[in-house]
Amino acid sequence: MAGHSHWAGIKHKKAANDAKRGKLWSKIARQLIVAAKAGGGDPSTNLTLRYSIDKAKDANMPKDTIEKAIKKGTGELGAIEYVEVLYEGYAPGGIAVMVDGLTDNRNRTAPEIKKIFERRGGSLGASGCVNWMFKKKGLITVKTDAIPEEDLMDIALTAGAEDMENTGEIYEITCDPAAYEDLRAALKENDIPTETAELSMIPENTVAVNDVETAKKILSLMEDFEDHDDVQNVYANFDIPDDILAQASE
To answer: Domain TACO1/YebC-like N-terminal, which positions (predicted)?
Structure first.
């Protein structure tokens, strides 16, 4: 799994209930607000905003909700201040973790993130302690029953993908950020539905987790971060084999 995000595959297996969807919409709304505030409300001239709108549409976010968030960012509906935060630390087993967030109160968020690390047997580290282990990549996932592997690989590699991995239920495609737009467009032109399409931080190498209890703690930690309102993304460099994952999920 070197060079891939094992968490992306695990998240796909988890059911998306209404409560999770509502939380996801709230997080995407923050992205829209920040993107519109930084670069304006026109997605044709604001690439970050366009990515956020695409993500909102993929999450079936209502059009009026999207527009309202953009107007909050441009100041048409009152000013809301969110700042980007990044926390780095370690999960049990020495697994590197990066927590990317948007908050309106750093003094609230930082101790809450520290508490989550500690509650699950991990520790918050200093700035820069693990981010050197990750590289920014385009990450796109496709269900394995959507298209034969060879057909998808041919399309993806032709469009600039660096690698593709079959993780069981999904194909995980990674690319250089510069190739992300072309890759997305190629999949769309070929009517290939995507599960995830985003710019992500991918570990250059992964660490195998062969202990069920350690795996349980890591997964609980990741889920706690995903459930936190201020957290946008969580990245980690673990690789949990399928048999251990099955036991840890019981």
So the answer is: 5-76
Verify that 154 and 175 share a domain, yes or no.
yes
Tell me which residue range forms the domain holding 68. 6-74
Do 27 and 127 fall into the same domain?
no
- With cut-offs at 50, 70 and 90, classify the pLDDT of residue 18: low
Three-state secondary structure call for residue 134 = strand
The first and second tokens of residue 216, run together, are 């349980």
Q: What is the chain's alpha carbon radius of gyration, rounded to the nearest angstrom?
A: 18
Gap between the Cα atoms of 55 and 66, Å rounded: 10
The DSSP bridge partners found for residue 123 are: 90
Question: pLDDT for 48-61, tens place per residue?
Answer: 999 999 989 988 89
78-107: b or e for each residue (b if 16 or more CB lie within 10 Å)? eeeebeebebbbbbbbebbbbbbbbbeeee
Q: Which residues contact 103 (CB under 8 A, 6 or more apart)?
A: 82, 83, 85, 109, 230
- CATH (domain of 144): 3.30.70.980
Residue 93 belongs to some domain of the structure: yes
115 and 218 part of one domain: yes
In the chain, the amino acid numbered 44 is S
Mean local confidence (pLDDT), 8-33? 73
- 199 burial type by CB count under 10 A (0-12 exposed, 13-18 middle, 19+ buried): middle
33 close to 80: Cβ distance less than 8 angstroms: yes
Q: Does some domain include residue 79?
A: no
Best CA proximity match to 47, nearest among 239, 177, 217, 164? 177
Quick one: tokens of 162? Answer: 């660096």
Q: How many CA atoms lie within 13 A of 85 on its CB side?
A: 23
pTM: 0.86
Chain centroid to Cα 200, Å, comes to: 6
